[in-house]
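Q: Is it fine to ask for two folds in a single conversation?
A: Yes, each is treated on its own. Send the first.
Q: Here.
A: Result:
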Amino acid sequence: MKQELPKQETGRGDVTDLVWSRANKSQRVFSHVVEALSQGKQPDVEMIYDIGYLFRTTAVYGNGKFGIAPYEHMKDNHTFSGAYQSQMFALYMLRHFSFDLVEHIARKNNPEAATLQPEIKKLLGTGNATGLGMVPYLISHPKLLHLLTWISLQTWSIGHLHLQ
């Protein structure tokens, strides 16, 4: 994987790889958050609200693409045996890595830097530059889409109340 992943779409994985993903940062938000934390402050909530992420994916591959593990090779009781489970977990990990990274850089700038408050973290997700593979899945699973809408509305409401 170490040699193949940097080739992106010309690379080949193997059945021990569950997900290939790449991402980039929202330069404006990322820099703003690092600067604010370095100064011992929290980032501007309006900016966080407007953009909503520190990192955005440019690709999230799974289910046999480029030779990586197909779903049918996983045991039914495997944590990631369901459709898109490993990709969603990768996005979750990427989100948390983005928090760790901005805090790490801020501490390098200033050992007394602030850390992101949990309320701010709740407003930050992982951006998605493509999402084409998720569309058929979400269309085929309307209950999940309804759940995502409910979660989104609940998160928005909580964030909105914090702004009041």
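Q: Second one now.
A: Result:
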Amino acid sequence: MQLQPGNRVVVTGASRGIGAAIADAFERRGCTVGRVSRSGDPAGDVADPDSIARAIEGFGQVDVLVANAGIAHYLPFTEMPPELIEQLTRVNWLGTVYTVKAALPGMLERRRGHVVIVSSGAGIRSFPGAAVYGATKAAQRGFGEALRHELKGTGVGLTMVYPGQIRSSLHDHEKERMPDWYKLERGVPPEPLAQAVIEAVEKDKREVFHPASVRLLRIMHGLKPAFADALLRRIMHRSAAP
């Protein structure tokens, strides 16, 4: 869909990092942006279906929805407490479903709109310590791929976004548990990814990969899983598989 000044955009998890950069990019295009978070405007908790539904209903018409809200916890699976497993699942996976469920009916009724789901490179092929986090991101991927098929011919588009190492505060609280690659504090700024999302909405692109190493990971994952593991080792400087 071609963006126009005044288009109404909802971005969840827009208080920092990728979400904030995406919200800023839409605002620069003249869009009216609702930055949804538990303390945002409008306020809403994606893990609570009633809360996120109220937030989106209160915002009004949604032309573009960016389901970006997410959290990260990293531990070996055998050490991951059930409460963290549930939290990751409710925010990253169910939060995406609840958010799309709330905004999609209006788009379908108007036969116009676009849904963006921000997953992760970990949703393509995950790494040690991210068994649960990666599973929630893979669930987003499966959901988005199927939903794009269901939306064909409705006038509503869908784009999956797979960020790699993006500079963000998302993982800071887990830094000591992160693999060595993260402690090097590398990563690319979120603004180019945000601009790629704008382009994807306007051109109805199926997927966005950023940086380019994530696209290569996707290709290798499909062709040669062992090559994908080798790529992860190169990117992350530690074994990605036994």
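Q: Anything structural to flag on that second result?
A: Two points. The two ends are 44 Å apart (CA to CA). Confidence is low (pLDDT under 50) at residues 237-242.
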